[in-house]
Amino acid sequence: MDDYLLGFLVGLGAVLVVAAIVKLVIRKKPMNLTEKAEYLSKRRARMLPVLAVIFLSQQAAFLSTVNSPAPHSAYSVKISAWLVLSIVILAALATKGFWLEPKEVRDLIDDENTRANRNEAMRWGFLFSMGGAIAVYALTLFDVTITARDAVHIVMTVGIPAALIRWGMLERRAHRDA
Amino acid sequence: MPERLANRLKERRGELGLTQAELAERVGVTRKTVNTVENGVFTPSATLAIKLALALDLSVEQLFWIER
Predict the structure, then answer these.
(1) pLDDT mean across residues, chain A
(2) Would you say the ipTM is above 0.95?
(3) Please, what sign has the CA dihedral across residues A122, A124, A130, A132?
(4) Does residue B34 register a pLDDT over 90?
């Protein structure tokens, strides 16, 4: 099997396993619509920084092997799995998320305050990404060779976790009672 | 001095014996949104402000005002 395809499948498999576990846990707790939205919203607030850490650790593992003579197949699997994770995280940031939940729950979770928090997080993600891009550009001015692929990695390593952490912070603050 | 949108959401909610979750359910948002509006962390849209005022049987002006 092609190494890149294997990586895609591993990444996709991991996402599906996590989604199935989440679904099973929720099914065990009888909740009405608002309770479910509240429960999921709180859990997301807790999960966002964790997701940022997972993403960063994966990036660190990749960046540490950039110039090492790693076997090509391991590299390809890693790249594909990383791509799947990045797409899933970006989709979660850009959409209402909780794709396996009914529409009513998804609409309720994505209420006015959540949308405002998400927009603010996306703003942070954009600014950090641009900062990362500027840093990469500046490095190349000092004869540092960075491939396009590595540059994209660096920009995403900075932008995506920034958005995740900011969103997590805002959501946690919103859940906190005065 | 910066302006801020003050409200008497908590007070009125208490008068009617409603919890944040119950008010949120009436308005169609999560408890989190009611909590942030109540604490002045989040400025609601005109739509949400009207919905909250209707749910609490007040006018928007009675529920929200600008504090300088």
Answers:
(1) 84
(2) no
(3) negative
(4) yes
Q: Which residue has the higher pLDDT, A178 or A7?
A: A7
Give me the number of domains chain A comprises: 1
Q: Where exactly are the structural domains of chain B?
A: 4-60
Is pLDDT larger for residue A9 or for residue B28? B28
Which residues of chain B make contact with A113, given a CB cutoff of 8 A?
29-30, 32-33, 36-37, 42
Q: Which of A32, A33, A34, A171 to mutate: most B Cβ within 10 Å?
A: A34
Q: Is B25 on the interface with A (CB under 8 A)?
A: yes
Structural domain including A26 reads: 3-175
pTM, rounded to two decimals: 0.83
**B4-60 is a CATH 1.10.10.10 domain:** no
- The CA distance from A172 to B36, in Å, is 11
